[in-house]
Amino acid sequence: MADAFRIELDDTALNASLDRITKAAAKAVRPAAQAGAEEYYFEARLRCPVSAEAHYFYGRQSKKTGVRYLFEPGNLRNSLYQVYSKDNSGQGVAQYHVAWNHQKAPYGFMVEYGTSRAPAHPFLRPAYAAVQQHALQVANAVLLDEMRKELA
User: Residue 149 forms beta bridges with which residues?
Assistant: First the structure.
């Protein structure tokens, strides 16, 4: 009969460590995503066009009645926001939206995309393109930092 040997491995400590890492990562996802979104938000604010003086926006209350709204310089920039999206977030995923408040600046779409009468002055899309890599680096750095804090 051949000699046999047996090796036993207790993976309890390893599994506990992996569980701690998983929990730390899950807890760090949202702060990391917010840090990346903030980079994009600040870049969008910098790129947002600001008129030299107050301007009017013409809308409609009904098909027959037109309304004229006066907006102060910087209104569109001041209506920019970032918000956590509960609908698009979940287990291990945190998503933030950066946009303008459509009630405070209903003309934002026309500025970003233009109209048949006015050229586009995009600021959201160029802001995203400009900081995409940097925002990802910031998010990754925050993710690692938050995980280190949890695991310390």
Answer: none
User: CA 88, CA 104: separation in Å to the nearest integer?
Assistant: 24
Say if residue 127 is exposed, middle or buried (CB neighbours under 10 Å; 0-12, 13-18, 19+): buried
Give the CA distances from residue 60 to residues 64, 84, 99, 106, 108, in Å, rounded to whole numbers and listed in that order.
8, 32, 23, 12, 16
Q: Which residue has the tokens 């993976």?
A: 11
- pTM given for the model: 0.81
Partner residues linked to 84 by β-bridges: 96
State how far the Cα of 108 lies from the Cα of 125, in Å rounded to an integer.
13
Closest CA to 111 of 76, 87, 144, 86: 76
| Domain boundary assignment for the chain | 19-48+78-151
Distance CA 109, CA 59 (A): 14
pLDDT tens string for the chain (152 positions)? 567 888 888 888 888 888 888 888 888 999 999 999 999 999 999 999 999 999 888 877 667 777 888 999 999 999 999 999 999 999 889 999 999 999 999 999 999 999 998 899 999 999 999 999 999 999 999 999 988 888 78
